[in-house]
């Protein structure tokens, strides 16, 4: 069988205008730089990667900037089992420009400013058409999200021709990536690109968790476990919903000052609670428990604490707990069956219950109208070659979002 | 007839003196109602499985001796001070879940959980942490769920009383005091089943069948009943069950897998109506991802644990919640359901499979424990 070999265009082919460069590379393999993770937990290495052109329903995107989300770190550390897929290109929070599109793609074109998102939104399936759910069911579930969603293959090869795995259907730690159109959201050029980048995952997730999944009402009390970027985005969402009390729970006392900028009214450091359980402290502060509790860490024990802090008096419960954090140890959340009978509820959410294509543009507008605050999330910036610094900063608890700028 | 208002009444009650032992009909003294209370002459009462749970329970919150029963209908004999909502002669239904109609929660249509009188499993009257019952030796007999209907007379707080139209036959109306309201409410108000939905009900006792009835009234397209007793299918059809899964006949497959296959991804709403944590897991697993809601109605042991896979909770977007009294606000919603019965929309008659006299109350327990009854109505003797 004759195998089609696409001519390779070396990356350093510069042209005068962006439009011409785009046309030159369309349909051809692009050679460009990527930060590859070859072994779990080890520093990423900048290498040359070959990126195939987009197939039908796919979009090749030139990444402008990307940011590190803790979910990247979680999967980067997994050393064994089916979730460990190396070598891999991590990164799933980013913003870019469409370089070329595959057949059948009409909703975006070359030159459009877009956000790649891990949450699919095909617009056609029963779930996408419903306002009640954002779990697009177009693609067969791929729990390990290490390939393109439609055909299960990779568009990346390293310089030895070996397959490099995708991550969360995005893979943004690379100069050019290929993303299925169901995972691409076109946005307005008015928003500064580093702010836009945040809406590709973390901030949207947190704001959505509060405003859509929990649907926090004005006057409610909210408790947020874990004040990383997602937890603070929940606070921002709760603030927009006019919650009366927004309690932040974190082991790092510095998070309180920071959190105040995002609407935190109270702060609890579990290490300073003495003999008392965190849930007892919260119940005292809120006269029975918080109306809405959010777990934004990814630990079952914290999920249980969050559940136990939700409003319940005697044998009846009102409180709703939303699980946002990604737990990868396989430990179960253990709850009292009775507490469910009494009325407390628990649910989880991916991407804050938001349908990317309809809801991200709304958040962009809220930012442009100065209702939604995004600036405070960006605490650091590095160049692509220094990407490992972003991992260090997050690991040391010193950053919220570190923007990683691609070279131009 | 001698005026009894303001004086203690001597009457008969079925007293539960030890866990799991038959009730003994004894004479008791029932004190007059305190402020905010009413003394009720019970017309008839029915046995609910929650009575059985607390009958068998040896440890707190179960206490002894006590008068069980919480699903009933009666007539107001006298009222205490500060009671204006009901008066002597009114037909009333006692409900274990308070509806004060004043607090934010009672006024809100989103919640039926009164914050002024939060529900708790208590051995006393609602407000005073005291009992109105004494046996002939003068020993205190405890209340149950603020109702204690296995007695010719009982004392109930006004927040636990719903005034109803006396035209409704009492042995139908009493069902709305707990079980049928809980089931119908769970579908109608808590889950808000939409027309065309698919519903799966685990456990086809009175509650489960009431959920089916509620789902039918909401226009559910498919109502799947799951039980280990095959006879429940025929019974279930009367209440709208369209498909039946016998949990014993699934072979190697877990029930949830059978349901997921039948519904092409899971049911929109799953209801657990038995009271077993293991079934709550099964119901949760049977629920469709994205918008699926699992509602727990069954009462398991207070210590039983649920263990959920956090990745599944995160990725599925499914909601797990429970409801007391089906999410209904007793005082506004019970009359609505009664009217729907009178208008021949809501079915109640088929829930009653047996009727006994008060002295034979233990027969009601036997029938339910043996799985032979749905609702057995217990008539007080002067009816």
TrEMBL record, chain A:
Entry-linked InterPro entries: ADH-like_C (IPR013149), ADH-like_N (IPR013154), ADH_Zn_CS (IPR002328), GroES-like_sf (IPR011032), NAD(P)-bd_dom_sf (IPR036291)
All copies of domain Alcohol dehydrogenase-like C-terminal, residue ranges: 229-361
Cofactor: Zn(2+)
Superkingdom classification of source: Eukaryota
Gene3D superfamilies: Medium-chain alcohol dehydrogenases, catalytic domain, NAD(P)-binding Rossmann-like Domain
Keywords: Metal-binding, Oxidoreductase, Zinc
SUPFAM superfamilies listed in its UniProt record: GroES-like, NAD(P)-binding Rossmann-fold domains
Alcohol dehydrogenase-like N-terminal domain span: 58-188
Family: Belongs to the zinc-containing alcohol dehydrogenase family.
Quaternary structure and partners: Homodimer.
Protein name, per record: Alcohol dehydrogenase
Species the sequence originates in: Xanthoceras sorbifolium
From TrEMBL, chain B:
Residue ranges of domain Alcohol dehydrogenase-like N-terminal in the record: 34-164
Cofactors required: Zn(2+)
Domain Alcohol dehydrogenase-like C-terminal as annotated: residue spans: 207-336
Keywords for this protein: Metal-binding, Oxidoreductase, Zinc
Family annotation (InterPro entries): ADH-like_C (IPR013149), ADH-like_N (IPR013154), ADH_Zn_CS (IPR002328), GroES-like_sf (IPR011032), NAD(P)-bd_dom_sf (IPR036291)
Entry similarity comment: Belongs to the zinc-containing alcohol dehydrogenase family.
Subunit structure of this chain's protein: Homodimer.
Protein name: Alcohol dehydrogenase-like 7
Natural source organism: Xanthoceras sorbifolium
């Amino acid at each position: 069988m004759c195998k089609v070999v696409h001519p390779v265009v070396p990356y350093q082919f510069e042209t005068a205008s962006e439009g011409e460069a785009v046309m030159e590379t369309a349909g051809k393999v692009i050679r460009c730089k990527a930060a590859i993770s070859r072994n779990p937990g080890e520093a990423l290495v900048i290498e040359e990667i070959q990126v195939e052109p987009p197939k039908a329903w796919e979009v090749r995107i030139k990444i402008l900037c990307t940011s590190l989300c803790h979910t990247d770190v979680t999967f980067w550390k997994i050393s064994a089992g089916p979730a460990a897929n190396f070598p891999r290109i991590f990164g799933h929070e980013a913003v870019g420009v469409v370089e070329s599109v595959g057949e059948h793609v009409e909703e975006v074109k070359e030159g459009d400013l877009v956000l790649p998102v891990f949450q699919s939104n095909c617009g056609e399936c029963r779930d996408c058409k419903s306002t009640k759910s954002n779990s697009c069911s177009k693609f067969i579930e791929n729990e390990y999200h290490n390939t393109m969603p439609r055909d299960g293959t990779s568009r990346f090869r390293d310089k030895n021709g070996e397959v490099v795995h995708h991550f969360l259907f995005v893979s943004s730690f690379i100069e050019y990536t290929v993303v299925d159109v169901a995972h691409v959201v076109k946005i307005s050029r008015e928003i500064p690109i580093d702010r836009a980048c945040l809406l590709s995952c973390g901030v949207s997730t947190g704001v959505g968790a509060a405003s859509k999944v929990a649907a926090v009402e004005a006057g409610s009390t909210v408790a947020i476990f874990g004040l990383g970027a997602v937890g603070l985005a929940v606070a921002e969402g709760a603030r927009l919903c006019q919650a009366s009390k927004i309690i932040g729970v974190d082991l790092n006392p510095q998070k309180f000052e920071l959190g105040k900028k995002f609407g935190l009214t109270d702060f609890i450091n579990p290490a300073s609670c003495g003999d008392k359980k965190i849930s007892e402290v919260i119940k005292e502060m809120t006269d029975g428990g918080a109306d809405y509790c959010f777990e934004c860490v990814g630990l079952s024990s914290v999920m249980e604490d969050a559940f136990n802090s939700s409003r319940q008096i005697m044998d009846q419960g009102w409180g709703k707990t939303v699980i946002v954090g990604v737990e990868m140890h396989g430990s179960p959340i253990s709850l009292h069956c009775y507490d469910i009978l009494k009325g407390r509820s628990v649910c989880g959410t991916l991407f804050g219950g938001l349908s990317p294509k309809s809801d991200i543009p709304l958040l962009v507008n809220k930012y442009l109208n100065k209702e939604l605050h995004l600036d405070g999330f960006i605490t650091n910036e590095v160049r692509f070659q220094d990407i490992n610094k972003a991992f260090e900063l997050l690991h040391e608890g010193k950053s919220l979002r570190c923007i990683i700028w691609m070279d131009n | 007839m001698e005026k009894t208002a303001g004086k203690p009444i001597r009457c008969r009650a079925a007293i539960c003196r030890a866990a799991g032992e038959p009730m003994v009909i004894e004479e008791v003294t029932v004190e007059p109602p305190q402020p905010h209370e009413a003394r009720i002459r019970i017309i008839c009462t029915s046995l609910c499985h929650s009575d059985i749970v607390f009958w068998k329970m040896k440890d707190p919150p179960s206490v002894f001796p006590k008068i069980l029963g919480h699903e009933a209908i009666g007539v107001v004999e006298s009222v205490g001070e500060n009671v204006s909502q009901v008066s002597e002669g009114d037909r009333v239904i006692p409900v274990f879940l308070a509806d004060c109609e004043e607090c934010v929660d009672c006024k809100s249509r989103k919640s039926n959980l009164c914050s002024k009188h939060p529900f708790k499993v208590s051995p006393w009257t609602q407000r005073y942490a005291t009992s109105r019952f004494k046996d002939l030796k003068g020993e205190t007999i405890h209340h149950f769920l603020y109702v204690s209907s296995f007695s010719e007379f009982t004392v109930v707080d006004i927040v636990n009383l719903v005034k109803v139209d006396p035209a409704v036959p009492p042995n139908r109306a009493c069902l709305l005091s707990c079980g049928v309201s809980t089931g119908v409410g769970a579908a109608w108000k808590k889950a808000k089943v939409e027309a065309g939905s698919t519903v799966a009900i685990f456990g086809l006792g009175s509650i489960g069948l009431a959920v089916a009835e509620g789902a039918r009234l909401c226009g559910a397209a498919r109502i799947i009943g799951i039980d280990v007793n095959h006879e429940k299918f025929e019974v279930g059809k009367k209440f709208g069950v369209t498909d039946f899964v016998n949990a014993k006949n699934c072979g190697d497959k877990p029930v949830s897998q059978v349901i997921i296959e039948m519904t092409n991804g899971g049911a929109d709403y799953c209801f657990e109506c038995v009271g077993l944590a293991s079934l709550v897991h099964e119901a949760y697993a049977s629920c469709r991802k994205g918008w699926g809601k699992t509602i727990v109605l069954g009462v398991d042991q207070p210590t039983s644990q649920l263990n959920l896979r956090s990745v599944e909770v995160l990725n599925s977007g499914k909601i797990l919640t429970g409801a007391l009294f089906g999410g209904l606000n007793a005082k506004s919603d019970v009359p609505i359901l009664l009217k729907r019965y009178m208008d021949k929309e809501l079915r109640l008659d088929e829930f009653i499979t047996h009727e006994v006299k008060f002295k034979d109350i233990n027969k009601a327990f036997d029938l339910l424990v043996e799985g032979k009854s749905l609702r057995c109505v217990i008539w007080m003797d002067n009816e």
